[in-house]
Design goal:
Two copies of one chain form a homodimer. Chain A contains ten helices and five strands. Chain A is of the alpha/beta class. In chain A, helix 1 packs parallel to helix 10.
């Protein structure tokens, strides 16, 4: 049973920030090499899902962890408010279209989980619908796993309510960050406790487990994610394929 | 009139390789910053098209020029032999689906131009069909330009026939490159002269001009492309937008 209040959003005290930043850079280069190997082999896809409250760093983590990868190998997708066409379909329709083919890494900034998070928090769906959708998500992720060897890696970027306030204020004060600021984020923040409950439902009912990432410090958050992505790829024990002899 | 035989595929003799490699790295970081600005403004898209013979470095250039960009901002697409569904549509159907939205950079590794290159070289289409398609391409690229402010930047990576031989042999000798080797590339190479003619037709009939990039040396090729991409983004004279005051 995951209870977010019991998990610290802060980096452990005994860790050296500068060292960790170098490690993240090394891990990033490893991930780039491993992605090439993933492509050369063409046997697995990797789906990385980022969820978290506003300002938790979903975009920032994507940038730092995959920045050494070629754009040929890593595609990132942001799921915002569904379009009319998307709303006219089941909630998995828009995500299924962009799951990774073998050899590639796809990154979801928000995902199909929003349909049981924001939608439940605002009572747009009830518990019965949430349960049905949760079951559909479990089946969907299992389908990806068994039928196209897609590895599904899910990260919750865990920040404190105080840290969010700090970051929202930063967006209002630093000119280069103005464009990230959305006045509506303050309104959404009022539902903080309901969001925590909704997330706990997700973590405790997902078949493929979640990684809860302490995200109050950007550098530690990047480290935890990069470490997990790198290890997941290493565990595939891939080698470069032999020379093709015929067309 | 562009005639490829008159353009050197080699880097100028008086240029320092190590200096240039550092410049490419700096340009790469600039391009990353400029892409963020492109996204913050949301007024223009950028479509970068790479064409060139096998081994000319389409993938490698994508990696080196855009490697500091976040995967959220740059998507790359490789167009290979069309699928049955793609063949059942007009030749622009599959590319139109993945043109860049405002704020993003999309990179095409091969493109709609293949439909008047490989298809003409092998006589799958005749001159009349080629002319019609060329006209359709010009109209299509103009549509992207005027109706969604998409900048279309096209690069031909110009290598010599001798250099291609060297690179194909490298793929057969270096274990980490085995996966790139396709025995069919030797057969395609036999049509070299017809390809040069087909490319010249493209260059001399495109409304949006092509950039012919000397590509025998990877480092110089990356420099020419990075310089052009960076300058194109700088010319937009973008600034960070002001703070939003209402939702």
């Amino acid at each position: 049973m995951i209870q977010l209040a019991e998990i610290s959003p802060d980096a452990p005290a005994d860790i050296n920030k500068d060292e960790i930043k170098n490690v993240v850079r090394e891990f990033g280069r490893d991930i780039s090499d491993l992605q090439e190997l993933l492509y050369a082999n063409g046997k697995h896809g990797l789906l990385v899902v980022f969820q978290g409250m506003d300002t938790s760093g979903k975009d920032g983590t994507t940038e730092k962890v995959f920045r050494y990868c070629t754009p040929n190998g890593v595609h990132a997708f942001s799921f915002k408010k569904p379009t009319d066409l998307e709303f006219a379909h089941d909630f998995l329709w828009r995500v299924h279209k962009v799951t990774p083919p073998k050899g590639k890494i796809h990154v979801f900034n928000r995902s199909h989980y929003e349909d049981i998070l924001i939608q439940r928090v605002h009572d747009w769906i009830d518990d019965v619908k949430r349960e049905k959708r949760m079951k559909a998500i479990n089946e969907f992720e299992e389908l990806l796993s068994f039928d196209s060897n897609t590895i599904v890696l899910k990260f919750y970027l865990h920040i404190s309510k105080e840290k969010q306030k700090e970051k929202l204020e930063e967006r209002m004060q630093v000119e280069r960050k103005f464009w990230k600021y959305n006045p509506g984020d303050w309104k959404e923040r009022e539902h903080w406790d309901k969001y925590m409950e909704a997330y706990e439902y997700v973590f405790n009912n997902s078949k493929i487990p979640w990684n809860i990432v302490p995200a109050n410090q950007r550098w530690y958050r990047n480290y935890v994610v990069a470490k997990k992505v790198r290890q997941t790829l290493l565990d595939l024990n891939m080698t470069y394929p032999p020379l093709a002899t015929e067309e």
